[in-house]
Amino acid sequence: MRHLLPRPWLSLTVFVLWVLITNAASLGLLLLGGLLAIVVPRWTQAFWSNPPRLVRPWQALRFLGVFALDIVTANWRVARQVIGPLHRLSPAFVEVPLDLRDPFIATLLGSIVSLTPGTVAIDVDRQRWVMLVHALDAPDPQALITEIKLRYEMPLREIFAC
Q1: Which of 67, 113, 117, 126 is the most buried if burial means most Cβ atoms within 10 Å?
Q2: Across the chain, how many H-helices and E-strands are there?
Q3: Looking at the structure, do residues 62 and 29 belong to the same domain, yes or no?
Q4: Is there a single domain that holds both residue 101 and residue 68?
Q5: DSSP letter string over 34-80?
Q6: How confident is the model at residue 2 (pLDDT cuts 50, 70, 90)?
Q7: Is 52 a member of any domain?
Q8: 64 with 126, same domain?
């Protein structure tokens, strides 16, 4: 079964997205979606790294809740900052030293930082294990580093035991 569906969750996602996008009501569209769900993961298999195993799924669900709340509050904060006087903003590039050493988790962390409004992960240097982040407003860069490490990096390391 693993040979036919090397990434079952990706196959399921491709199929569900196909059904939603095409509004598949016919058998032909459903069969085409099923074929894509089998073929796309196999064609892209060389591009996927081997992600670490999810060790603590309940903690991952809690983390997703915290992350969703952070997105909502950051949207509100960024909206106030952009509408307010721009001279009060302190944009900065900040280097966040990483304790994790897994490329997949580092990429996941960069994605989480980028999805949180007001911050963008620009690069993860895997030689020095430092993530370069641009922040819209970082009057205290060390506070931003601490927040990223405590709110995102540490839980990810616990969730994936790395």
Answers
A1: 113
A2: 6, 3
A3: no
A4: yes
A5: HHHHHHHHHHTGGG---PPP-S-HHHHHHHHHHHHHHHHHHHHHHHH
A6: low
A7: no
A8: yes
CA distances from 115 to 6, 13, 42, 111, 120 (A): 28, 20, 28, 6, 8
Instruction: Examine the domain organization and report whether 113 and 154 are in the same domain.
Output: yes
153 vs 67, 84, 95, 128, CA distance in Å? 12, 31, 14, 16
Q: What is each CA distance from 21 to 13, 15, 34, in whole angstroms?
A: 12, 10, 14
- Identify the domain containing residue 41 by its residue range: 8-47
Same domain, 40 and 106: no
CA dist list (Å): 101 to 5, 129, 161: 29, 7, 11
pLDDT digits (tens, 9 = 90+) for 34-81: 999 999 988 888 777 777 888 999 999 999 999 999 999 999 999 999
Q: Both tokens of residue 28?
A: 């032909």
Do 140 and 70 reside in the same domain of the chain? yes
